[in-house]
Amino acid sequence: MNFSVYRDLLSIVPVRRLLLVGMLARFPHAAAGVLLTLHVVLTLDKGYAAAGAVAALVTIGIAVGAPWRGRRVDNVGLRRALIPSVISEAVIWSVAPHVSYEWLLVLALIGGLFTLPVFSVVRQSLGVLATGDKRRTAFTLDSIATEIVFMGGPAVGAVLATSLSTVVGLTLVGLSTAAAGLFLMWFNPPTRSAATGALPEHDVEAATAAVVTAAPAHLREPAVELAQAAAEQAEAEDPSRGGILHRFSAGFSWVTLSVAVVFVVAAGAGVLLASSDVGIVAMVESTGNPGELGIVFAVWCAASLVGGLVYGAMNRKISPMLLLLGMALLTLPMSLATDTMSLALLSIPGGLLCAPVLSAASERVADLVSEERRGEAMGWYGSALTTGTAIGAPLAGAAIDTIGPASGFAFAGTAAALMVLITLGARALVTRRSARV
């Protein structure tokens, strides 16, 4: 392990600034999860399954909107792509706390659709600013920054809900997120490298000439072959050519078996994190001390921070699938907790693998997908993550309402572990069949 890589990366001003902006933009949403749950359970007097349904609709909206937002960033630039998010965040979350549960469901879906795409934008920009092994460290630093935010965000949300009101808390979330979006637009981090933006698209001769001119004399012949192959592939993927089926398949030509496996990891992580999140809220609230939520979230996120620091300093990669399996199995003992402190302590083993799972998956996407499609790919990665969240939150809530708070953690660990094992088996089967052909 080499911890000096953190110092070297943080010495790069754009990287340091991007991580700071990402932290500020994420903080309101870090408080929103707890506020929404407590708003439905305490203010609207509904159950945890109802709260899980609201969270599910938010995440379904995010899952549908993230690829579209990512493509908009790729096509029109960051500033124009963020305008709808800034407006909707300010309006929707100022209105949502004042409506009935039924209207809250509608607004939750719309709010999720136009959520500020902080995750995909930050990861896409880090993929441009950092290359090679530095990407692992950069994505790990972003995961660590996220954990720091989630150490404080839920605690602030719980304090706002219990000392003031969930109505005030959710309104502040919307206004703060809109302000963060304006700050992100002002900063305007790079989402495409200058070299890539300078190359012409779908022009074989121009692309070949550009590469050959830049290549040394003894490498010009292989450079011609590589440039022609790349340009011809881009021309074949031109959505303006061919019929509807051709354009649709060309639009997803970047999706390979390996990319699909990473998306399954993201969905599994979403199931695991959302179920654990609902379980923590239910377990602590059942003790009659909801104000202690911040203790558990702080310990859980601190463990993830430590795990992320260790993983980012490692000199080799670990499969995100194996990391997710380990995290799922280590989450199961949380169901044995009897009070706030025991829950906090039991959250440490699983928490150690949280940041490494997300860092490894993001790094894998950046390695597998070309820069021209990386914004959209990160959007789909975020969609997979939030789809898992949408599945995990209501199912865990239903289990908690039926059996008890401990069942949330049992469901979380078992569901994520089964997703990993089924995916590993399916991948092995596809690989064997491909080998036979």
Automatic annotation (TrEMBL):
Q: Which domain of life is it from?
A: Bacteria
Q: Which GO terms describe its molecular function?
A: transmembrane transporter activity
Transmembrane helix as UniProt keyword: yes
Task: Give all residue intervals belonging to the Major facilitator superfamily (MFS) profile domain.
Answer: 244-437
Q: Where in the cell is it found?
A: Cell membrane
Q: What InterPro entries does this protein map onto? A: MFS (IPR011701), MFS_dom (IPR020846), MFS_trans_sf (IPR036259)
Q: Which UniProt keywords apply?
A: Membrane, Transmembrane, Transmembrane helix
Q: Does the keyword Transmembrane helix apply?
A: yes
Recorded GO cellular component terms are:
plasma membrane
Q: How does it sit in the membrane?
A: Multi-pass membrane protein
Transmembrane portions of the chain: 20-42, 48-68, 80-97, 103-122, 143-161, 167-187, 251-273, 293-314, 321-338, 344-366, 378-400, 406-430
Its chief place of residence is membrane
* The protein's name: MFS transporter
